[in-house]
From TrEMBL:
It comes from the Bacteria. The lineage of its organism: Bacteria, Bacillati, Actinomycetota, Actinomycetes, Kitasatosporales. Keywords: Membrane, Transmembrane, Transmembrane helix. This is DUF4307 domain-containing protein. It comes from Actinacidiphila rubida. Residues 1-25 are annotated as: Disordered. It holds the Pfam family DUF4307. The chain crosses the membrane at residues 39-56.
Amino acid sequence: MTAVQSEPPASPPEGRYGSGDRRFDRDADARADRTLRRVALVLGVLVAVGIGWYGWRSIADSPVSAQVVAFKAVSDQAVEIHLEVHKDAGSAVVCTLRSEDADHNEVGRKDVRLTQHAGQVDTVVTVRTTARGTTGELVGCSTASR
C-alpha cells in the first residue's frame, strides 16, 4: 500500500473573503451601524414633523366649527335642529344638515347659509322630511363665497 501525502489546504485568494485581520471588519461594521442609526433617526424625525405639520394645518386651516346642540321631531314632515356655529366674524358659512329615520335612511337634507356678522351663531333650522325623522345631524360646514 502506498502512502498518500496530503497537501495543506490552499488559502483563499487575497482580499476575496475579507481581510485576515478581523479588527478592521468590526470597525467597518460599527461605522455602518452608526450611519444606519443616524439615517433612521433623521427619517423618524422627518416623519414625525410631517405628521405634526399635517395635523396642525388641518385643524388651523378650518375657520369654521359647528355642532348640533339639540334636535326635535316636530311632526312626521319636519325636524328642528339647534345649530351652533363658530366662524370668522363677517364671513358667510354654508352648513349641511340631515335627518334619518329609525332604519337609518335619510329622510331630509338641507343646506343652510349663515351670513350673520357675529363670530358665533346659534340658530334653529327646520328640515323638512319625507317620513318621521329620529335624528338631526350636521354633515359639515364650510366657508361660502359672498
